Structure formats: structure tokens, C-alpha cells
Amino acid sequence: MESLNKYKIKLRLVEETDADFIIKLRSDESKARFISKTDSDINNQKLWIKEYKIREKNKQEFYFIAIDENNNAFATYRVYNINEHTAEIGSFVSKPDYDIPINVIKVDIIIKSFVFSTLGFGQLNFEVRKNNKSVVNYHSKFKPTLVNEDELNYYYILEKELFNAGKLKFEKLF
Q1: What is the pLDDT of residue 29?
Q2: Could you give all domains of the chain from N- to C-terminal order, each with its CATH number?
């Protein structure tokens, strides 16, 4: 698989050369408060990517860089914890103050479609930080099932049928 292309968005698989971009996104203060902590050492990030590429080759994980219609990289998104029945999505971070916010929604829909259509799962798992109110609100539009929560996060399962119904509403905006 080279890339996913839809809605004028390209999602290409991460390479070691993306380490600096990933660190900049994940260490930005406005974004870092909603995600797990990232080591800011570029060599450690490259090593992590090198190890990830083995998991990618084995179809255990997929990590994407989102590129917009102006050829600007603006986000990351990952599919991981892939097993017989489900996969998890996460590591979704976009540039702070990115000026085409609808593209962030497009990326989410492309990734979820990839999990449901290409990988063939009937459901997917994801988590959202409780204090990330706009993202919690966005995901609620798809009517996922809240399966657990802790002090920091909500943990959800999204069924394919609910995603497909919600996706149609968003696609009208594209």
C-alpha cells in the first residue's frame, strides 16, 4: 500500500524522514495536552519509526502523514492494536492553527473507512481525552458506544454501520 487518497487528501505511510515533523506536532503545547507524552529526541523517534516499519510490513500497524491539496503535511493518524476482531485508531494530531479545519475531519473519515472497508473490520476502538471537548463532541456525531472511562480518557467502540450513517452527513460538507 502506497497511500490513501480521497477528498483531495493524501495519507501516506510514515518514513524515518518524518521524525522531526512528528516531534514538532506531538510536542506543541496546545496539542500535547490531549495526547500521550512523546520523547523529543529525534534519534529515538527515528528508531521508533524503524521498529514501526516492521509492524507495518506485517500489517500489524499503519501510521500515516496527512497531506492536503496544497501539498502541505498537516497531521498524523495511526491504526494499531490490530487483532482478529478489531483495530484501534489514535495518534491523531494536526498542526496547531491549521487553516483548513474541514481537512481534519476528512482525514478521520478516510482512516475510519480504511479500517472498515480495506481492513474489513466491523468495529474499531478509540480513546479521547475528556478535556478535549471539541473532539469528544465530534466523535459523538457517530454515536460510538462508551465502554469505559478513567480520570483522563473516554474509551469507545464504533460500529461500522453507525460510522457509515454519520459519514454521509459529513460528506455533504466536502
Answers
A1: 65
A2: 3-171 (3.40.630.30)
